[in-house]
Amino acid sequence: MENRIGCTHVQGDSTQGNLLSMGFDNLVKGDVREAETGGEQIVAIVEGMFDINAAGESYRLQTGEVILIPPGEPRQIICVSDTGKLYHVSTLPQRDR
Q1: pTM for the whole thing?
Q2: Do the Cβ atoms of 88 and 37 come closer than 8 Å?
Q3: Domains, the chain, with CATH or none
Q4: pLDDT in the model for residue 30
Q5: CA separation for the pair 6, 21 (Å, rounded)
Q6: I want to staple 13 with a disulfide (CB 3.0 to 4.6 A). Which of 24, 52, 53, 92 is the partner?
Q7: Are 45 and 63 within 8 A, CB to CB?
Q8: SS3 sequence, 47-97?
Q9: According to the model, what pLDDT value does residue 93 have?
Q10: Which residues of the chain are modeled with pLDDT < 70?
């Protein structure tokens, strides 16, 4: 069901609308989230430590840190602590709108 702001999907800790997707991911050590490309993405580390490979660079982020990943760039997020929690907001690529 679509509401007046274009939210088309809400499930658990995530939601997706016409322009954005956002949500929380709970991960354990070794879990990987990756995409070949995507829209602009903000990833905030709520708990834990993560290795993030994006736009040809590598970072290690921990609780309280945030990264902005440019649109169209590949990205890989790896949980390196026993457990971790991410908050992410992404613009949807043009083809998904």
Answers
A1: 0.80
A2: no
A3: 7-96 (2.60.120.10)
A4: 97
A5: 11
A6: 24
A7: yes
A8: ECEEEEEECCEEEEEECCCEEEECCCCCEEEEECCCEEEEEEEEECCHHHC
A9: 65
A10: 1-12, 93-97
